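USER:
Before I trust my own judgement here, I would like a peer's view. Write it directly below this note and I will take it from there.

ASSISTANT:
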Amino acid sequence: MASRSTQILEAAARVIARRGIRGLRVDELATEAGVSTALIYYYFKDRSGILRATLEYISDRAERYTTERDPDAPPLSPREELEETLLLELQDTIEVRENSAAWGELRASAVFDELLREDLARATLVWAQEIAALLGQVQPMAPAAALASAGERLTALLEGLSMRWLSGGIRIDHARALLRGAVDAELTALG
């Protein structure tokens, strides 16, 4: 069974994904999580604490669903690992939909919240660096600055494709094809 704080963060991700940051009310979060508002304040102090912890939670959850592999599956090539890691962010599952929608809501809210902006910038940097490291495994002779730029472009594109897919602007198969094309283009440029 999940800890109470994890239970609250799962509920926060759901509420933010459905209602946005402005729609996040502590009393509704408590109801969604099946806990008291006092317990939420005990764990997270205030609304800002809830948002910051939710950002960390969805970052960790994305890390899990993009990196967990079946131990009996054959190993992936560096290229396959890069593509799979990116494409797993475009899965039609509740977990990925919630994560992507909540990430987008947190990003939009960070425009007006300096503390959240700093946390989001840090999380985005880590993500772009992880993708740059995967790119470096495919193109080990590419300069670090070029890998970093390619990681930023691919993660930014993925965010945009995810929002277009989630909002019905494009189909998921088209978003995935566009992302594969971008990976091809970045690897060609790095080669």
